[in-house]
Amino acid sequence: MKRKTTLALALGTVFLATGALGGEARRGFYTGIELGLASATDLNSAVSGVNHPTRCDQLLRSTPPVASDNVLPLTDAACQVGGAQPLSLNAFDPGTGFVGAVSLGYSLDRLRVEFEYLNRSHGDDSRLLQAAPGNAPLGSKADEWSELDPPSERIAEFRAHQFFLNAYYDFVNQSRWTPYLGAGVGWAHTRLRYENRFVRKTIAQGYLLDENDQPLTGDAVRPPAAAGTISFLNTGLSETLFGFQLLGGLDYALTEQVSVGVKGRWARFQDLDDDDVWDLIRSHRPVQADGVTPFRSTQAFSDIEYWAVTFGLKYHF
Length: 317
Fold this sequence. Notes:
This protein has one domain (2-316): Porin (Beta Barrel). The chain is 7% helix and 51% strand. It contains two helices and 13 strands, in the order αββββββαβββββββ.
C-alpha cells in the first residue's frame, strides 16, 4: 500500500507540473521497447497431502518382519489418517529481477490501445519448513529431523512470459512531456521449480534416543530402518495465469517520431498450483504407509504480484 501511495503522489506531481494544456494529440501506430527491474512481493505457499506417522510405514519392515522393526499394523488407530490435510505454510521472497518488454500500439488522440509482451525473471529463495498448525502426524516427527539439515523448502527459476492488452490515457500538454495512466488485462505463462526435503537423524545422531540420550519407550519408539532416510520432492510448476495491471509513466519527445520515458507498474495474478508424486519417501519409492498408494502432495502459491520500473523507447509511425 505504501508503494502504491508513493507512485500515485509522484504521478500527481508530474501532472500538476506539466499541466493538461490541451496541446495537439497524435494519431497512428507506434512500437516500443522497455528494460528495467521487477520486485516481486512475498509468494505465499501451502502444501497439503496425506501424511502418516513414521511407524506406519510398511516398507520399513525387515524380511521376514520382526518385533524390533517397531512398525505398527495399518489397522492401528495412528495409521488411520484419512484424506489430504495441510502439511506446511510458508512465504518466499523471489527478490528483484530483470524485466523486458516490447509493445505495439495505436494512438487515438489522448487514448492509446496497446498489445504488450513482457518477460521477467526472479531469484531463488530457501526457507525452513513451517509445519501447518494442527498436523498431528507431522508434529509427532519434530524430534526425528536432522539438526544438520532441518526440513526446508526452496523455490528457483521463477519466470513469466506475459501477454497483455493495455489501455492508456495521455495527459497531452504544450510541453515535450506527456504523463499517462493506464490499465491492462491478460495472461502470464508462469513457471518455477519447487523443492521440499526432510532428512532424519542417523543412529549416531541419536535417532533412537530421547533428549536425555536414553532409549525411547512406548509410543515414541521409532523404526530403526527410518534412521538417516530422506523424503524429497523436486518438481516444476507451470501454468498460464490470468492477471491485471495498473500503469503510469512519463514520456519525453525527442522528435516528432521518437520519445523516451519511464514507466511504473503493479501487476497481480491468479494462484499457481500443481499436484505431484514425490521423488523419495524415507529413502524408498514414493508411496504412502501401505507401501502401494503413491505419495502425492499439492503445492499452491498465492499472492503472485510484482512492482516494476522500466525505461523505454517509442517510435511513432
